[in-house]
Amino acid sequence: MTDFTAERERMVARQIAARGITDPRILEAFRKVPREAFVADDYRAAAYEDSPQPIEAEQTISQPYIVALMIEAAELDPADRVLEIGCGSGYASAILAELVDEVIAIERHEALARLAGRRLEELGYENVSVYEGDGSRGFAEQGPFDAIIVSAAGSHVPDPLLAQLEIGGRLVMPVGEPQQVQKLVKITRIDEEDYEQEEMGAVRFVPLIGAHGWTETGERADPRDLPALIREAAEPLPDLDDVAFGALFDRFGDARVVLLGEASHGTSEFYRARAAITRRLIERHGFTIVAVEADWPDAASIDRYVRHRPHREGEDAAFQRFPTWMWRNTEVDAFVRWLRSYNEGRALGDMAGFYGLDLYNLGGSMRAVIDFLDEADPEAAAVARERYGCLHPWRENPAAYGRMAISEGFGRCETGVVEMLRDLLARRMDCMGEECEEWLDAAANARLVKNAEQYYRVMYYGSAESWNLRDTHMYETLCQLLEAKGPQSKAVVWAHNSHIGNAAHTEMGMVRDELNVGQLTKEKFGSQARLIGFGTHSGSVAAAHDWDEPMEVKAVRPSLAGSYERMCHDSGVARFLLDLRENADDALIGKLLEPRLERFIGVIYRPETERWSHYSECVLPMQYDAWVWFDETEAVTPLPGVEIAGEDETYPFGL
């Protein structure tokens, strides 16, 4: 076998070092990697010539100097993780493997990817992984990367690649038309939003073929970028107080269930938009159930107010526990007052009610079940007191019960709460009058107690089980409401995007095995369920830094580059509705189907760790049927903590 050691030394000295590449680590890497092992047998003798060489699949291996130039520009540290796009023969991958901890290489030609992988394995490079795929999309699942090197020329630097750079990361790539002289650019990510670019001279590379590059015929994959496609498809929204705002959502009026999301629990525009849409669905399309991500007993006091039912003696004011601002705010207050006014003078069966789906108010639910049975069946009430007595010591701090049950290894109170629910459900009755409303309330509370007992036990395992139990509880409560109100009943759901967007098409479902209300509802009702997500780019939000800490009005950081939110912001449309159903533009849906980051802010917001604590990868058109966008938003306004003078004593937000 020919010894190419002398040719390698000559290549390093004359082609690389003599042209200004002086980094000793790079020069040593080129001395060690046998270039002749990465070319076809017919070209081994020419492996060290100062020019590109043909390889399989009608591709080329780059000139040694260009490989060295791109690697030097990437400013690699030994601990770096590098994404290489257009791995070709695997030669540059081997050089990189000599310099950094890990190399992820992508090659679109299956035969080349397989051959490169075999060569690298035979040479003992265990820190390189080669994948077949569309390099223009990058490799989000493995990112972010300290450096990205692209050995193919695109019409531009693809947004997914920019988004997959670490802060401080470097990207080196040729940009320009196929079969023409291109420019080599280096991009450095300064922070989450800003990038610096410098040009490094003229080069000539094969085209980057893929969704964010060129087609096989040499055309741009799509001359319109995603923000332009969004701009073309977006339906601008009128002012929130304009009746035309709600009218735009008439298209969803034929559904059985319309789920309205929010990207945070503290944004005014999300609450006001949901109120406007819900008013329209109630007035024009026969919706009578407003089911919200709130605890059943708290929402029940609101429901008694809006449906002109008597206040329950001794009942606490609604929503007194953290996070109080989530429902005790001026935006919800205005909607509750409207709902009461709408119901004025209507028969009970024609009124629109306000119901909670969540399971956190354990004490309130136990009390509600006992209050119902005290009037309906005093003997059963005594049984309920005995069964719930097990949980009574933890009614105000159910998490403590969870800790106790885990340490003892069993659910001490499980049997009693299950039997209580079973007995209540056995009392099923005709749901056309006041008696049914009280039974429905008691049955929902009994289900909450049963599920909360299990939830607080499993939450300490830190797995998907607690999330799935909670969302399954909310879904079952929604189904209970629809069933109780009859086959013609229709519901609007208000909940966070993480609950109403189909989890099967998000990182929640694809990685963590979590399900949610949106997924379960879609599986049951199909096209009769419409999932509508909401998003924003920047502004302010009401949130806390940690659980049970005070609410703050926090600045929302501008959305991350490459995220769905940044694409919407870059469209230049301040607020819009994007219908994502079957009749949507194919080019738009095609680009939206590429997984991207989406932001989720709950009652906790930590801007300093936002990328990791508030973003998750999703597939927007599979997650939602429609997307509502407000580019800049404001925090909700919490209600004062005292009753307003002159209020009806039954007003639910009074103390």
TrEMBL record:
<comment type="function">
    <text>Catalyzes the methyl esterification of L-isoaspartyl residues in peptides and proteins that result from spontaneous decomposition of normal L-aspartyl and L-asparaginyl residues. It plays a role in the repair and/or degradation of damaged proteins.</text>
</comment>
<dbReference type="GO" id="GO:0004719">
    <property type="term" value="F:protein-L-isoaspartate (D-aspartate) O-methyltransferase activity"/>
</dbReference>
<dbReference type="InterPro" id="IPR020598">
    <property type="entry name" value="rRNA_Ade_methylase_Trfase_N"/>
</dbReference>
<dbReference type="GO" id="GO:0046677">
    <property type="term" value="P:response to antibiotic"/>
</dbReference>
<keyword id="KW-0489">Methyltransferase</keyword>
<keyword id="KW-0963">Cytoplasm</keyword>
<dbReference type="InterPro" id="IPR000682">
    <property type="entry name" value="PCMT"/>
</dbReference>
<dbReference type="InterPro" id="IPR052036">
    <property type="entry name" value="Hydrolase/PRTase-associated"/>
</dbReference>
<protein>
    <recommendedName>
        <fullName>Protein-L-isoaspartate O-methyltransferase</fullName>
        <ecNumber>2.1.1.77</ecNumber>
    </recommendedName>
</protein>
<keyword id="KW-0949">S-adenosyl-L-methionine</keyword>
<feature type="active site">
    <location>
        <position position="62"/>
    </location>
</feature>
<feature type="domain" description="Ribosomal RNA adenine methylase transferase N-terminal">
    <location>
        <begin position="66"/>
        <end position="191"/>
    </location>
</feature>
<dbReference type="InterPro" id="IPR029063">
    <property type="entry name" value="SAM-dependent_MTases_sf"/>
</dbReference>
<dbReference type="Pfam" id="PF01135">
    <property type="entry name" value="PCMT"/>
</dbReference>
<dbReference type="GO" id="GO:0005737">
    <property type="term" value="C:cytoplasm"/>
</dbReference>
<dbReference type="InterPro" id="IPR007815">
    <property type="entry name" value="Emycin_Estase"/>
</dbReference>
<keyword id="KW-0808">Transferase</keyword>
<dbReference type="GO" id="GO:0000179">
    <property type="term" value="F:rRNA (adenine-N6,N6-)-dimethyltransferase activity"/>
</dbReference>
<comment type="similarity">
    <text>Belongs to the methyltransferase superfamily. L-isoaspartyl/D-aspartyl protein methyltransferase family.</text>
</comment>
<dbReference type="GO" id="GO:0030091">
    <property type="term" value="P:protein repair"/>
</dbReference>
<dbReference type="Pfam" id="PF05139">
    <property type="entry name" value="Erythro_esteras"/>
</dbReference>
